[in-house]
């Protein structure tokens, strides 16, 4: 069972606080969507609107083309997997998973058979007669998934379900979630603040901030071609170089930056509407700095001094301070073989196709440090 | 050395005096219920079970005992159901003046049983309800409801709120959430409220005395026995009442607290 979801101009206010500000989003049937953003960005509010636990102040929510405006949570074709699992502590795993079917008046034998089928899918068939308190966190999480899927929802809503698990278990559960989603074909809407988790599981990521959608796209699009400064900084490490558009010409965009003038192709623009005279920010990922001697087109951003470096296995991570603008710290990933000596000078060289021109200037501090908790 | 020894002796002495103060009356009561003689006062003449035999042979005492059990269990059931519903409503929904409502529900705890009994007595007279075991039961619901509400309300946390939300999400109607999820989840505190309420009703005298007429509860029957003077039989029936109270507390301890500790 699966269905498309359409959110049009959804706004949710709590008194003076706007939790969700005119958000529109189309989700295709069978898609794995991840709502990504810092706490308070509105992602959980949006999920609650889909589940029917909150109703929008303005706007429309449709599932499978049907308006959900007056439909109670228990009548919606959605189920939710809660962060704290919310299993029924007094019931066996079998009864937990069968609960939704019991509410739908499915006979005992049939619902128990179905519950055991689902417990088998999540690898817990042998524990069907246990109670939730006998299980580990990861196992409870699997039961919560089986329980939510037992009623064959069109849309499964996942409210940071992996948040309470340790890192290793979390990576393993991400793979399982993804595999199960492919198998059942249900539309998944998953909320998280962990960008690695988002990249690992999502078909499409929706980056949210302050109640608005900042960016929507496949994980590689969001990472490589972010639309906003916030989106670029939330999806992993990035260097921001402030500048101004000098001129837009046929053979490229001319930009003045604190590290000198550069010319970039039109495709580097995050928004085609960016025009001459506008303040912009160049976003460069640490791994996009190149050796100055190499094939292909390159642009130079002057020399920089190595402040410090450490070896990460796959690369050296170095902090550099540019000669033209020593207050700025640039983080670069250098090849394993590079000799990174503090005090040494290297050239800042990049492939122009890996640079993105974002509208506006970044605030001095990074908008939000992501914490892998 | 000596001073620490003295303080040790003093603290043991204090303990002995304290427990003596609390339990000596009960010990005396129980001891003289075995008195082989006509008066439950020293000297102790030797042990006999004669008085217990008389208690169990006394049909009025036995029917009073049955009445007491009926009133205690019935009124406690009602108090628990009403207390649970009130707690669920106030803990789970935004209600007008909910703080005031909570206060009003708990307030009868601070009113003396005598005042509650007088109030009920004049109300029953005014409405035209004649006194019976039913009116005693209503009185006991009035005194035990605040207790049941307070105990059950205190155990309703936000964690359970999310579990109830999950039940609703899976298609449960409100009454199904209450009966199949909330009540079983809160069963330890509901049982605690029930057993405490049964103990209070079982021991209660003033309300039972003022609100009953022909059928009476055990404390009222004991009181009318006492009017004809002390004898070891009153001690024996008093010991039975005490024993039942202790048994109820033990059940509470074993079933309820053992169960919550395991979770």
UniProtKB/TrEMBL annotation, chain A:
Keyword annotations from UniProtKB, A to Z: ATP-binding, Nucleotide-binding, Transport
Domain of life assignment: Bacteria
Nucleus as UniProt keyword: no
A Pfam family matched in the record: ABC_tran
Domain ABC transporter: 5-235
Keyword Transport part of the UniProt annotation: yes
Annotated GO MF terms: ATP binding
Family matches, as Gene3D superfamilies: 2.40.50.100, Nucleic acid-binding proteins, P-loop containing nucleotide triphosphate hydrolases
Protein name: ABC transporter ATP-binding protein
Organism: Thalassospira povalilytica
Lineage: Bacteria, Pseudomonadati, Pseudomonadota, Alphaproteobacteria, Rhodospirillales
Automatic annotation (TrEMBL), chain B:
Compartments reported by the entry: Cell membrane
Chief location: membrane
Claim: Transmembrane helix is one of the keywords in the record: yes
Cellular component terms per the entry's GO annotation: plasma membrane
Listed GO biological process terms: transmembrane transport
Keyword annotations: Cell membrane, Membrane, Transmembrane, Transmembrane helix, Transport
Protein's membrane topology: Multi-pass membrane protein
Transmembrane segments: 12-34, 69-91, 103-127, 133-155, 190-214, 234-257
All residue ranges annotated as the ABC transmembrane type-1 domain in the record: 65-252
Family of the protein in this entry: Belongs to the binding-protein-dependent transport system permease family. CysTW subfamily.
PANTHER family linked: PUTRESCINE TRANSPORT SYSTEM PERMEASE PROTEIN POTI
Protein name according to UniProt: ABC transporter permease
Protein species of origin: Thalassospira povalilytica
Organism lineage string: Bacteria, Pseudomonadati, Pseudomonadota, Alphaproteobacteria, Rhodospirillales
